[in-house]
Amino acid sequence: MTKTIKTIAAATLTLAVTLPLTACEGRIPTPSGSDASTTAATATPDLTETQEAAIRKAILDAYNNAGDAKKTDGLDARVTGPAYDIYASRIRISQTGSLDPLATIPGDIAQTVIPTDSGWPRSIFSITTTTEDQQSKRLLVMIQNSARENYKLWAMVRLFSGVQMPSFAVPKIGSQMGDAKDNGLVATPEEAVKEYADVLANGAKSQYASKVADDQLRQKLTETTQQVQTGIEANKGTQQQTFTPVDGAIHVMRSTDGGDLVVAQINHEWVRQAGEGRESLPASDDERVLFGDTKATSSLKATYTIVVAIYVPSKDSGKQITAVGADRQVVKVEAVK
Amino acid sequence: MTVNERKSRRVHPRSEKGSETDKSAARRVWIMRGLVTPILGMLAVTCIVLGILNATVWKPSRSIAASTRIEGTQYIATDPGVLPLVDQQVELTVESSGSDDVCVALGSGKDVNGWVAGESYVRVTGLHDWSTLSTETFTSKSSSDASSDSSDDQSGAVAFRDSDMWSKVECGKGSAKLSTETENASTMAIIDLGAKSDATVTLHWVRDVLPDFAMPFYFAGGLLVIMAILTASLFAMPPHKRRKRIVESVVHEEVSVAEALSGSLSAFKPSGKPKRKRSRHAAHRPGAATESVATTSSDVPSAAVPDDTTGSHDVSMAFPSLSDPSQPTIIDPSARNLVADQVAANAADHDDHTDHVNDHTADAQPSAVAGDTSAEQPSGNDEATSVITPDELQAYFARLAQETSDDDGEEAHQ
């Protein structure tokens, strides 16, 4: 009898111990990705392609709205830097006519380059398709200055026809943003822009002429300068042009072939003096609109904003610094005494 | 003593012990069937019942909701890996005590960290238990500096909900709810309460895959059932019944190992070859065998073994007396010098061996290989023990071994 009682007691005890253990939800999981250092160490793209498309759409909406309204109100929320200067100028010019077709940005892209960098500022490089009127592709540089700001269009560069663009990592992998002082290239991006500006100013006489390949912007500038020179010579006047890279106005993206794609702003000041007591007048329609009713003097200063995309190859590649695209717009015309 | 006499002597004690053996066997059966089997059976039933309970009543719930109350903060962020902690599909609910707009957003770790940089915020680090979230307050060292900094660069700053960085944003007055299927473990949720206030954060998952606690119980139950059946049948059997089979198989194996060895050796030798080999050996060292055997009568068998292969005529010359049947023969296996016998047998056995090798390769070879211990006796006393063949003798030894162990076993049980 006691044996039976003991057996029952043992069985009850066993059950009492076992039962609470059985009625549970399982082991509490711990976050596997909680190690923040590992996630930070593996370079992941800052954005998905969907996010890039959304950002680009928001930017282009603001851009096109301003263009349609021919007003720059609210444009600064999504457009900044040289892109803002150029577009604001084009909008102002368009107020007397229609918007320059060069300002058009297609809605679709051919390629996007998304950075993997953790810090700020960040920049996205996107290349659009050709425009409806078969203009060349646009390279858009969208930057985010800080985490609390949104991406803004910093530069729109019209790619030269037939240029060979460097290759970049696919958006799912992401590319590394470069620095203005990147080494291992034929010149640091900052120096390359200076050398390019020097070549723009001095042409074939520049000390860097051999380092920089010829391109459509250089040809166009030479051509314009020649035309103006002809007129000035008739007036016995003079002209001076200065090309100044803007400090800090540079964005760099590292390509997979070792070089850097550099987008930088160069300010172009063009001072023309008329001789024989004559007035110096604007040289183009755009200049004329911006000059407006200002009283002309013997001297005129036109300020152009140039955004240029330059490919700076790696040191051992044996290639030249090559401009792959540019945009140039007069932003200010004034009479100087 | 003849073999038959020994047999009868051994059968006698066994019959004496018969009743005791039966008793112990009965006791064994009782223990196995009356005690061990029911215990195992009970355990098996318990396991199966527990398994069924775990699969039904105690089944882990599919829906897991864990929440926590957070006080005095504007930003709350989940750590990477917290959102998909239980299931990919998660619903995050925030209820703020303040009246400001509450927003929940999803972003990558670096974006979230970028947004809250310089601010103090609360991290949701995981599950404390199945219904509570664990949290940790992160205090920024530069939070006071940052507040002045952030006021400086407020110009370009955007509202939380308008940031480009979030892949998904949900906002609401006082509370917000966001459902998502997180694919990337580094995705974090960030909550903006608008201003410093208290809030309750709830993460709700619906589990696709539930932990299966029933299967281990079923498995253990199954094993216990098998064990119960075994204890009731096989282990309840009297041990000698099982052991007999084992001994028999061992005996059989002993023979078969030797057979296999010699058989495989003989298979390599063509039947004609050994003869030639032997004659060649004899030609090479005609006196070698004679000398070694004659000088060292107490030599170990191994020294004499190679001489087996020497010519039979040499041996008969060295030991004419052994091959001479005129000597008196004493038949007492217990009082024999086996070593001396062996030496003698080695010499005298050659004729037999030659016959064995040639005629009964399968039977006689093992005895030659195994050291000639069994084969010599009959061969040395051919006439006296002619009734027992080597095979019979071997069978006898096997039986002896079995019965001895049987007796031992019985004694041990008693």
Automatic annotation (TrEMBL), chain A:
InterPro entries: DUF8094 (IPR058407). It comes from the Bacteria. Residues 44-326 form the DUF8094 domain. Keywords: Signal. Residues 1-23 form the signal peptide. Pfam families: DUF8094. This is DUF8094 domain-containing protein. It comes from Bifidobacterium ramosum.
UniProtKB/TrEMBL annotation, chain B:
This is GTPase. The keyword Lyase does not apply. The keyword rRNA-binding does not apply. Keywords: Membrane, Transmembrane, Transmembrane helix. The chain crosses the membrane at residues 30-53, 217-236. It comes from the Bacteria. Residues 13-23, 351-362 have a biased composition (Basic and acidic residues). Residues 404-414 have a biased composition (Acidic residues). Residues 272-284 have a biased composition (Basic residues). Residues 374-388 have a biased composition (Polar residues). Residues 1-23, 268-314, 351-414 are annotated as: Disordered.
